[in-house]
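Running log. JK asked me to keep both predictions on one page so they can be read side by side. First protein, sequence followed by its tokens:
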Amino acid sequence: MIYHITTTSRWTELTPHPDFAPEAYAIEKFIHCCEDHQIQGVLERYFKGASSLLLICLDETKLKAPVRYEPATNQELFPHIYGMINKDAIVDIRPV
């Protein structure tokens, strides 16, 4: 299981579509994700003070796009999805 954090407004905006991607995907060409033990650090570093966040829980075996573990903060490996998230790979969506 891997996780992606997004805003409720972005999720709502793309609800009718079969695939999901954050706004940064258009520039970066991949989607930032994390593993369970990385969630708190990601929230503290990148979403401090943000509200209305959702944790999208993904079964990476169901993703159509490739997942690569690449070094990021402090050379820690994070999963990056190189394509959009097909919604049938979403196992759960939880408020943060």
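And the second, directly underneath as requested:
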Amino acid sequence: MLAIIVAIGLLVWLLAPVLMPFAVAAMLAYLSDPLADRLERFGVGRTLAVSIVFVVLILVIAAALLLLVPLIARQIENLVQNFPRYVEWGRDTALPWLQAKLHLDPKAFDTDRLIDQFKEHIGSIGSVLGTLSRSGVGVVAWLTNLVLIPVVWFYLLRDWDRLVAWVDRMLPRSIQPTIAHLARESDAVLGAFVRGQLLVMLALAIYYGVALTLVGISVGPLIGMVAGLLSFVPYLGFITGFVAAIIASLVQHGDWTHLLMVVGVFAIGQLLEGYVLVPRLVGEKIGLHPVAVIFAVLAGGYLFGFLGVLLALPAASVILVLLRYLAQRYKLSDLYTEKGAPDSVIAEVDVTVHESQDGELPVHVGHNDQP
């Protein structure tokens, strides 16, 4: 079994570039399958329901792109036009202030050399991106993925229920009820997590974009979108957006009034994210206490780095399902109930199991049955 797992992991690692569009399509199919199932419950055929959901979501994505792409383009153009001001502020204000406050040797920072190196790196990145964009292979691969993702998404969505049923039929009958139960619980938890996290990202992007624009930051919408997108990683969106907004405020206005307003915007945003959005839309839906959420993120980052931070809450939600199941099995075991316990104790355990809330595994325990 271990050899099979290692072989599958190695195969996935080798085929990662090829599997990318299929993974994205599978994620989209997983997220949109509940909508198709809901239409089926109203008597719509599977193919028609999938077609309706697919077309509506494609139109929504296209409308969002038509709305966001011009906005992002204008924001980037604004940033490029004001870039010399940012460079001048860094050279004439920020670096001398750091030298004075940290008591550094003025020669420690050769501002002209640093700026030249920065421009050189920017130019190198631009040339690499230009080469990639002009590469025939790169363009073909990009266009192939762009066309392949919706095609695979449609077919996976159409056959999603049949694929799930096939996997269920292939499970060993002795463990099928347990695995099916855990899969249903994990599906509910992960679905709640993904939907909740997307709502948090959207809410924060709108809040930061609108609030920074109202306080007079010209690139506020761009900073808000970046902060909202990066909020998938706890604290990363806040730190990135806060630093960018502070620099933009100092360069654009250079006074304490706008600086304090930016600080207020992000202070309110952090409180909104930490005490309202994440606990209600993410943490509570996956059944994790806020302290457990923080621990999961820190542990994931310590064990697996950036990838661990990204996968911390989804992994924690699945682990939570497994721990609940193990705790339930433990409470039904002889180790917990004491072997040879009175009939009243066994009967009480039996009734508790059958009358439990949704999510409890309906395991029957008799006098001498093992749990």
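Observation for JK regarding the second prediction: Residues 190 and 314 are 6 Å apart (CA to CA).
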